[in-house]
Amino acid sequence: MIGHHMQANQAQRHRRVQCAFQTTPARQGHFLSVIFPGSQKTMSSLSGKVQTVLGAVDPGQLGRTMTHEHLTMSFECCYFPPAPGDKAVAEAPIEMRNLFWLKQNPYGSHENLLLCQETDAVKEELLFYRRSGGGTIVENTTAGISRDVTTLKRLAKETGVHIVAGAGFYVDVTHSDETRKMTVEKLTDIIVSEVLHGTDGTSVKCGVIGEIGTSWPITDSEKKVLKATAHAQAQLGCPVIIHPGRNPVAPAAVVQILQEAGGDISKTVMSHLDRTIFDEGELLEFAKMGSYLEYDLFGMELLNYPYKLEVDMPSDSQRVKTLAFLVAEGYEDRIVIAHDIHTKNRLTKYGGHGYSHILNNIVPKMLTRGINQNQVDKILIENPKHWLTFK
Ligand SMILES: [Zn+2]
């Protein structure tokens, strides 16, 4: 699946090397925490706080929050070869006349998968996000897709946007041999250490576990990571975010594994529901399990979803309709939203919608479709705040 035959010039090749950030095993150490007698629970000093890449903050400081974004990552793991006739456009530099093709075939161009090359453009976007009323971004890039917390820290400093980084591992196809061989205990230690001590050999600490990647069916290695996630969450009282496989029953299957391993579903976000559950009855059944319900592909409108052609990717209007449905059913305290930007073409630099699309275009639409301002504030401010606050 991983393509390495890109006809790159020297500079591009150099940047790709920079993107291929390898995760170093987390350092083992003593956790800065207290084990309460008679309880297996380890409470950290993070209780009541949110942990950003610049340190712990009061939850009231977060403001409007996108709960699932990427500011720097590489998505080479999920390259999807273009149709034979599209080879020329797929390998051409990104320019105006290719943008519609790219929008419909985002995973068929190697160039498009290297969001990690666009830090300057992302910085501009974050400054615009602040001007648009945004406060916080959950940057849930995990091991396997080139997490780069040093860049996140710099972006947070230079833009004033609170950034929360993600601990743990992405989908099975990105797990290293070393990861696959690890026990649940070892995986748990790594995740806990990424939250308490720092990530990828730095002192930058994660404030959420995830996005934890799962495929469908869920693989053995992914099951171990899910159990480790639940164990780490039980120790830390921290938020968790999950990437489910592309099957309507996948989210419930993940929740069951987490639950059985002692995870806290009320502090867990289930991502990507827009491309996973389509039947309203099935959605309500899943909602009863108690996780946060995330619609996080706002701005992504394409005819053929290459990873699963049976899926009709909803339009933004359809997403808003689904949010209104969930609000009417009483789930306004459980909804969170985002864009999940993970390719270049979705940045405004490349004619895309950018990180401020929800604030500038989707919120006004929500207000005309039966969702009131108080409910919008819950979805953008209150729900993310409660989710991100350590117990
Ligand atoms: Zn994502």
From TrEMBL:
Signal peptide: none annotated. This is N-acetyltaurine hydrolase. It holds the Pfam family PTE. It catalyses: N-acetyl-L-methionine + H2O = L-methionine + acetate; N-acetyltaurine + H2O = taurine + acetate; N-propanoyltaurine + H2O = propanoate + taurine; N-acetyl-L-valine + H2O = L-valine + acetate. Binds 2 divalent metal cations per subunit. The keyword Amino-acid biosynthesis does not apply. PROSITE patterns: PHOSPHOTRIESTERASE_2. Belongs to the metallo-dependent hydrolases superfamily. Phosphotriesterase family. Keywords: Hydrolase, Metal-binding. A divalent metal cation 1 binds at H68, H70, E211, D340. A divalent metal cation 2 binds at E211, H243, H272. It comes from the Eukaryota. One of its GO terms (molecular function) is zinc ion binding. SUPFAM superfamilies: Metallo-dependent hydrolases. The keyword Iron does not apply. Its cofactor is a divalent metal cation.
